[in-house]
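Ticket reopened. Same input as before:
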Amino acid sequence: MCINFICEIINIIVKVGVIVFPGSNCDRDMFHVLSDVFDLNTQYYWHEKGLPNNIDAVVLPGGFSYGDRLRAGIIAANSPVINDVKKLANKGIPILGVCNGFQILVESNLLPGVLLKNESLNFMCQWTNLIVKNNKTPFTSKLQLNQKIPIPIANGEGRYYADSQLMHDLKKHDQIVFAYEDHVNGSVEQIAGICNEDGNVVGMMPHPERAAEKLINPLDNKPSSLIFESLIHTLGVKN
Amino acid sequence: MSLQKHEIKHIQDTIKRKLTKTELQIIAAEWSEHCSYKSSKKHLKMLPTTGRSVILEKGYDSGVLDVGDGYVVTVHIESHNHPSAVEPFGGAATGVGGVIRDILSAGTRPIAILDGLRFGDIENDTHARWLFKNAVLGIANYGNCLGIPTIGGEVEFDDCYKGYALVDVAAIGFGKKNRLIKNHASKGDLVVLIGGSTGRDGIGGSQFASDSLEGEDRSAVQIPDPFIEKLIIETILEARNEKCINAMKDLGGGGLSCAVSEIAESLEIGIELDVNNVHTRESGLLPHEIMISESQERMLIITSKQKLPKLRQICNKFRVTCSTIGHVKNDKMMHVKKAKKTLALLPAEFVARAPLLDRKKTKPKYLLQIKKENRVKKTLDYSKTILKLLSSPNIASKHWVFQQYDHEVGIRTVVKPGFDASVLRLDNGKFLSAKIDGNPKHCYLDPRQGAIGCFEEACRNVVCTGANPIGMVDHLQFGNPENPEIFWTFMESLEGLTEYAKFLRIPCVGGKVSFYNETPAGPIKPTPLIGVLGIKDKTPFLSVSPNNDDHLVIIGDTKNELGGSEYFEYIHRFIGGVCPRVDFTDSKINMLAVLSLIKNKLVKSVHDCSKGGLSIALSELSIFGNIGCTIDIEKIPCEENLSSEKILFSESHSRYLLVIDKKNIEEVNHILSKKKITFAVLGKFSGDQINIKHESKNLVKFRIDLAQKRYFNGLEGLLKHG
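Engineering reply: fixed in the latest deploy. New output:
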């Protein structure tokens, strides 16, 4: 009872921002999961508006920002709001980029590496299994190492690539957060998600917001829920 | 330009002066078959369009169904056949765009897309394969970018589409009833065009689509831009919330001419506009080009003077161009100007209402020459035949297609594509089931029974998810209607659909007619496509895979109806015989029986029995459940002395396969017997083989893993390697 009460208070104080770019299309889904499923105080931020300093976590949702013109994520990465995201990232605020959000984080150099066209050269929408490789980030702290997460992907450019030097660095700093269980799209070492050196900025191609509710997850929604519960846990501790 | 003699006379008699060039172009666009439905309009009235949940409003391009708790579902279907046959990527993509804007016009957010794709024989015809791959890519590119899930559809290949393509797109919208746009306008209101700029693409598109396809008129195909469409969706929904929209219409076939004349006609107003105010993509566009261009991603909005600043502000937020092109008057005239010069001044009603036609119809000669089926060689090895069918392009898994579509975005998709109907969750806690079905092979042999069959099949699929059918949309695709034989097939299909819709009391809430679908080798087979929506309250029915010792039950009668079956057409390359016929009474009681078993939680899963017949439906259950099944063919309810071949492959309607836990089998038996349903317990799931026994001998026997390989590789293998 007492814990519930404290949680409610925290949830009112804590602010999670979902950034909306022109062409974002998973913003409403992410908002629904953060706000309706996990009771977080969530707000949309249109890309032209600045982010407040007292925000506690930021999510860059999936979609086709600027219609994927030029290259997925590149135009959004030059949007004014990204300067604010960078400032928050430096402050250690948890930042999650999903799908196109991950592409934007990579294009804005908040995360290293690149995302290439899938090996099949097609857009791929299918359920996959992720393996947790790092459970120290704000989005994975409630997960076990090597825990399996059934989760859907939906992208055309989701093949993570890093050269051998970068791979070496990623491993050295424990920056590989998720890997696919199978050879899904040709990602180097089957990488599905990574984080920055500090671990507070996480990018992932699969969609946790599409897997956290039982009704739409035909396999098991618990592991994906833990991604959001990890965030709640992290924010709770901070307060 | 394609005005007919009698139309020119009608113009002379009514307008009593020589028309300007702009006027002629406007009328030619609006009076094209594509825009005016001049061949079909008189007859479409026979379809029942009202019902308990149907909401009718002025000037809607989509059907609206009340789903309770203050929410509505909107639905519409369109095709983009001619453009897709010339330029499949752009044609299919803009097909998606058009129907999405129809959903948007009602003030609802598009939440799902379904598509029906039909091409020539992709196994042997590389052009058909090229068309198919690019149409899928076009739909994927467009729908995925919009963030609207493509939740289902169907894919079919038939020689009758050689050198051609049928690309049908259905879209579903969802919204609050009190936010529907109640189209209205009053004098002094402003006419605003928002979205993409007007260019030379798609000039004369509606006339291009109203004639047989000769040569490749690429300028008649529009260029897709899903990013602008996405911005328009968000702009319009925000403008709707801010009550900036008095009336709205999408610019589709016939472009500005069509949108302006139709909105003026339906609201009984006049509209005066200046082509100089239309934002264009290139300089030097002639006024009539501006009026009939079918450039995509444009919406026409009528707003009041007070609300214009707010509307502009919303457009600016999304960087969507917004031009005030004219204003509303009381004179019911469509007045097109260029600065001070009048280019067209015609009564809107005159433009919007083409003189309707009474086409002649005669029973086609080919129907008298349809072959009897005793010419078919007997099949010796049924196992091999079933495996061959499982890997055939029409039956094999379509995952290569639907995995290129984002079918999860929107987080509503409860039942994913790939089996029967797909199911979406709605905000009021109800579940919406949707399916589209067509069957040109059946419709060719009997346009009336074939069309009814498509309708029933779509209903069956919806019923398999436990949902009650609440509304249908039809898309009637035929060859040249000027040919009385083709018009006869159209009328037969339409009458059949009407009869069945009235019997089941399912209203037709929207539809489209597409004529002039002709290939170099002649008309396509009659291809009516039926979409059905169903609603399930409270909980969704999530099917569970069969386990060891679960029973397999069939509901429905298997009849001597191999005509138009995949077995005849794919295995024997034989077109002929008697096509399946829906028995209305059985159809209804079987549906109700399945729904009541699902409601009472007595079934683990239900599968519709259709393409390929019973043998394929059974194999699919085993393939997806990853478990074998042994059944006794003698137990299958059928007419006396029906051969094994017919029992296995006949595509008789009104049949369902049910997986029943053994603890429930007695109760199911009891309920079905009491309701006097034709049914039988056929056998049990177990092991890793499909085994169909006849007089305790193995008539069919093959391993599930082999069947899975064939089923999942059939289509994908074909496309990956060429």
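Chain A is about 30% helix and 25% strand. The two ends of chain A are 19 Å apart (CA to CA). Please confirm and we'll close it.
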